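Hi R.,

As promised on Friday, here is the backbone we talked about, encoded as structure tokens. Could you run it through your design pipeline when you get a chance and send me back a sequence?
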């Protein structure tokens, strides 16, 4: 598992960027500047969260993994919402709601994809 962590992190990041970009398009994001911000925010937050949750699950078990997923996803939602509030041109939806939608769609998509890959 630890040997595969860098590949897992890369796969998760790529899927997250693809899914969140598609979700952003669906909610009406159109500016290249906004897509670049969405991508860069995920480059910062996603690998950290994937690494921490994977390591917690590996070393401390499922309960630690689950607790860290809940805390981590909440932290990512808030962090991304704050960054989006400062950087996004898109203003049809509150930046925190944008963060919630994009993260919710990518997280739920990840669960579905994970079920099919097992």
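Update: got your reply. Pasting your designed sequence below so it's all in one thread:
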């Amino acid at each position: 598992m630890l040997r595969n962590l860098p590949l897992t992190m890369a796969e998760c990041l790529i899927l997250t960027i693809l899914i969140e970009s598609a979700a952003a398009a669906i909610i009406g994001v159109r500016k290249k500047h906004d897509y670049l911000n969405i991508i860069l925010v995920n480059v910062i937050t996603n690998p950290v969260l994937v690494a921490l949750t994977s390591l917690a699950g590996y070393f401390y078990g499922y309960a630690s993994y689950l607790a860290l997923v809940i805390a981590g996803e909440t932290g990512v939602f808030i962090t991304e919402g704050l960054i989006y509030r400062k950087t996004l041109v898109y203003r049809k939806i509150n930046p925190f709601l944008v963060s919630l939608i994009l993260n919710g769609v990518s997280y739920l998509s990840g669960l579905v994809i994970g079920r099919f890959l097992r």
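One thing I noticed while checking it: The longest helix spans residues 32-60.

Thanks again,
M.
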